[in-house]
Design a protein that fits this description.
This is ATP-binding protein. Pfam families: AAA_33 (PF13671). By secondary structure, the protein is α/β, with parallel strands linked by helices. Helices cover 51% and strands 19% of the residues. The chain has a 4-stranded parallel sheet with strand order 2-3-1-4, with helices on both faces. It has one domain: 3-Layer(aba) Sandwich (Rossmann fold).
Length: 124
């Protein structure tokens, strides 16, 4: 049975870092909306396309899980209802859902986000 990992946490909590590690250790397909948006929209990450991208990634991820591939949805999943819906969908395709919650203090979050924006070059 495949596993769908739901990565839960606020910006700066280390979700993508954790997802990249899990990608290797769990032999899983990692789906990170920010990376897809930047690739699809010429280096931009437009908010008005986020729901569309996430919807397609969920569709791809659930198809992969149905076919036996472990999947990581690196989305944030702040809302309980959203996590519950994804757990239900994973079960419906024959997979189990596992939540990975990454807590962060407000101070650490601010520090990490500031560091990210000062060390990551803006898109061209």
């Amino acid at each position: 049975m495949s596993t769908v990992y739901l990565i839960v946490g606020l910006p700066g909590a280390g979700k993508t870092t954790h997802a990249k590690h899990l990608e290797t250790t769990a032999s899983a397909l990692r789906l990170t909306p920010d990376e897809w948006q930047i690739a699809l929209f010429d280096g931009e990450n437009p908010d008005d396309k986020r729901d569309l991208v996430e919807g397609k990634l969920i569709e791809i991820g659930m198809r992969a899980a149905h076919l036996g591939t472990n999947v990581i949805l690196d989305f944030g999943f702040w809302g309980h209802d959203e996590r519950s819906a994804l757990r239900w969908i994973a079960s419906a395709v024959g997979a189990r859902a596992q939540v990975a919650y990454l807590p962060i203090t407000p101070e650490d979050q601010l520090h990490r986000i500031n560091h990210r924006y000062t060390t990551t070059p803006p898109p061209d």
